[in-house]
Amino acid sequence: MRIKKILNNNAFITRNENHQEIIVIGKAIAYGKHFNDEIDENKIYKTFEPVSKGDRKLILDMINDIPVSFFQIAKRIVDKANQDSKIRLTDSVYIALTDHISSSVDRAKEGLFLTNQFLWEIRSYYPKEYDLGMWAIKLIEQECQVKLPEDEAGFIAIHIISGELGNRLDDFREVIKFIKKVTSIVTYQMSIDVDKESLDYNRFVTHLKFFWQYMMYKNEKKSIGDLSNDMLKIIKGKRIEAYECSLKIKEFIKQTYNYELNNEDLLYMTIHIARITENSEEN
Fold it and tell me: 241: domain CATH number?
């Protein structure tokens, strides 16, 4: 890899085999280097290729304003999301995460902290992303010698969620609203207190998130686990109440989103509701 333009000691521009521009970041990676020099690829923290005009300007501004260490912290968070949680994130999330980490550390040093109004929802509906956020703030505290509140774990989780939703941050609020409403229908219709810490409820929420994305954007449908035994119970009519609850949810979705649940949608919704009900009755 050869340097085509030096941005600063920690960043330079090169091109790939298709002559597309690549921005490369690494601590002191371009120090003492010149045009067309080869670089040590072991020093690379992150490459952006190819980048849009909007992202290019944002990255270049950040390179000049933000210490390279924050890029490295963001990369470690993104790598952990990929490796441990199998969450695939876009470069735009990496950029936003780097910027947020830099800002949160600056605020912490001044004793200024923001309240995360979605913290409860993130803990309840996005536990995997919340746990990643908690791991991230411990990493930031260790690397930057600052103490961050739990709210910051929630903000980092939101950036991760945004990446999962295709960088549509507004969708996060809409998904939360959708899950809350469907849960309230189940609670009222089935006359139960839903155990939101249970594995069955977590599976139900995961199903609702995937369903919402399919309903809104026609993404690939995904089902959670082997439900064949539960399907047999439903076919035998053992959980008619759960099916009737699904019909109420179908009516809500039709009125609110103008989307008609098909038989498969109803079946999966019924199965998850039946599981939650059984869990609550046992407790």
Answer: 1.10.1790.10
